[in-house]
Design a protein that fits this description.
The chain is α+β, with helices and mostly antiparallel strands and 561 residues long. It folds into two domains: 298 residues, Beta-galactosidase, Chain A, domain 5; 212 residues, no CATH class. It contains 14 helices and 22 strands. The strands form four sheets. Strands 1, 7, 9, 10, 11, 14, 15, 17, 18 and 22 form a ten-stranded antiparallel beta sheet that branches. A hairpin with an 8-residue loop joins β4 and β5. The protein is elongated, with a radius of gyration of 30 Å.
């Protein structure tokens, strides 16, 4: 029985310290994604989802004075002009719009940088390979001739537009040779990452437009193979968040259903398209370009625009950070994109508490320490029970050693006498392990939260630790170090964490088996190497948790000595 207890303790310790191995396992949501594996990365419903669901925009008759259009068709092949680009700057971002397709060509976030250096370039949400795609609109059957390659005309003559206090609308117009007029009007807000798009299609041709409207978005996924946080296409279907792995796109490139919004996400940022109303009967089509870029197309149900009629399509696009407060302010249940899997119910409250602490003490390193203390206080009774059991087992070691020596040639008798000893002194051999099992969900929830929280991205702690989302490195070496990912330096927090693990090991009762005892002595060293590439925020949490645990274990040992 003792060996079973020790074996379980080793396994549980291994699970705790090698959390990444457990998280490598496919999350539960991925199992669902295998059944419906395609998520478009673009369109999504808007706040009007509280209204009745609609599958097509409102149809109105066209009056000659309500649908103005250029006197001559504007097409690149005929006009001979180059597409203009204009820059719109708000307090939150700078966006570039292109007449070719009337698309969002580039978007740079003003409050985020590419890395932790203060002179680092600002964070670009649309890389070069993804230009010309975001908010590109057309028809699945290309029933409107020329729209796929349309060169729109801007109504404004300004190349640079500054938005500080008031909303601003930028409109594009295009008309083909058949008389189909398209207007795309973007509405920008100075205090929001939401960009509104109203597209009006006026059919002044002599034939009915019967087709499926489509809108596209694209994003470069920084780590499509990540197992620690989901990165790839996602969609909100009702109240359920569907996530599709990038590697599954080629096998199942489509997903059908009712979509409130669809988008693409990486560890910290996302691009989301929100339709005016939930799209019932729509289709999400995905295409993988290269190793890291995904194009998502939201295809609406088939509709008709008769001659002399028009339809208006309303969309919103969110292109920005996965900051919980920002997403809550934007509404449309965008906060569901911050997903911690099966640990969501614990991780999100932990994230909220950490942010509240930060508002009082504006240092996320200190916030992590206080959050760890709070969780330790909550779990204090379980910890006491575990450490008391371990202390009892430690006091029993001399008696158990005698039993092992006396019955070393009779394993059955040894186990019987050991169990009798447990009954005599009312000791539960599993008492030290069961509380640990209860605490595991808390550990995993904190682990997922600290890994994914954008708040820790480039957040300084003190001294050389200027980015809690990156591994800590004191000094920078010009040569590589085995087991260490760049940058190369001294992982101070990780080394100290390993030392606390070693101290905990010395304070715990040794296994009765000498082989097991030797193995356990190597555990702190092994896990030090495992943690060497973890983010400093995660290592800080585990270090402080170890320190508090050592204090609690010392208290129990003194109390029941």
């Amino acid at each position: 029985m003792e060996q079973m207890r020790l074996l379980l303790a080793v396994v549980l310790s291994f699970l705790v310290f090698v959390v990444w191995q457990w998280l490598v396992v496919e999350p539960e949501m991925a199992k669902q994604a295998q059944e419906n594996p395609v998520v478009a990365e673009k369109s999504a419903p808007s706040e009007s989802s509280t209204q009745e669901e609609a599958t097509a925009p409102t149809e109105d008759s066209i009056a000659p004075d309500t649908a103005p259009m250029p006197a001559q068709p504007i097409r690149r092949s005929e006009s001979g002009r180059e597409a203009r680009t204009i820059t719109v700057e708000t307090p939150l971002y700078t966006v570039t719009l292109n007449e070719k397709g009337a698309v969002v060509d580039a978007l740079v976030l003003k409050h985020y940088r590419e890395n932790a250096n203060t002179d680092s370039p600002l964070k670009s949400m649309i890389l070069e390979k993804a230009r010309g795609i975001n908010m590109a609109a057309g028809w699945a059957g290309q029933s409107v001739d020329g729209m796929e390659d349309a060169l729109y005309a801007l109504e404004t003559q300004d190349d640079n537009i500054l938005i500080n206090d008031e909303n601003k609308t930028i409109a594009f117009q295009w008309v083909n040779e058949d008389g189909v007029h398209v207007e795309k009007a973007y509405l920008f807000h100075p205090d929001s990452y939401l960009i509104e798009l109203k597209m009006t299609v006026s059919n002044r041709s002599g034939k009915t437009i019967k087709d499926r409207p489509v809108v596209k978005v694209a994003q470069v996924i920084s780590d499509p193979e990540s197992r620690l946080a989901f990165e790839g296409p996602m969609a909100l279907m009702g109240n359920h968040l569907e996530e599709i792995k990038v590697k599954d796109i080629e096998e199942k490139p489509e997903l059908s259903g009712n979509f409130r919004w669809v988008g693409l996400t990486d560890r910290y940022f996302m691009t989301v398209l929100i339709p005016e109303m939930p799209v019932d009967g729509g289709t999400l089509k995905m295409e993988k370009i290269g190793e890291d870029m995904v194009i998502s197309s939201l295809v609406l149900p088939e509709m008709e625009i008769a001659p002399g009629k028009m339809h208006t399509f309303d969309y919103k696009a969110f292109i920005g950070p996965k900051d919980t407060e920002t997403l809550k302010k934007a509404n449309y249940d965008l906060g569901k994109a911050v997903n911690f899997g099966m640990f969501d119910i614990l991780a999100k409250p932990f994230l909220w508490i950490m942010n509240q602490i930060y508002k009082v003490l504006p240092n996320y390193g200190i916030a992590i320490i206080i959050l760890t203390l709070i969780t330790k206080i909550i779990l204090w009774p379980l910890g006491n029970k575990s450490y008391k059991s371990m202390n009892d087992m430690k006091r029993m070691q001399p008696l158990m050693a005698e039993i092992r020596e006396k019955y070393k040639d009779d394993k059955k008798k040894m186990n019987e006498e050991t169990m009798a000893l447990y009954r005599t002194y009312k000791i539960n051999p599993m008492g030290g392990c069961l509380p640990m099992v209860v605490q595991l969900p808390v550990f995993f929830a904190l682990y997922r939260m600290l890994y994914q929280a954008i708040e820790l991205r480039h957040a300084p702690f003190f001294g050389w630790i200027n980015d809690l989302s990156a591994p800590d490195r004191l000094f920078q070496f010009g040569f590589s170090i085995p087991f260490m990912e760049p940058p190369y330096g001294i992982p101070v927090l990780t080394i100290v964490m390993g030392a606390t693990m070693f101290l905990q090991q010395k304070m715990s009762p040794p296994p009765g088996d000498p082989t097991q005892a030797k193995m356990m002595m190597f555990m702190p060293l092994i896990f030090t190497f495992i943690f060497i590439n973890f983010s400093s925020g995660l290592v800080l949490y585990w270090l402080i948790n170890n320190v508090f645990s050592i204090g609690q274990q010392y208290y129990i040992q003194k109390k029941f000595a």
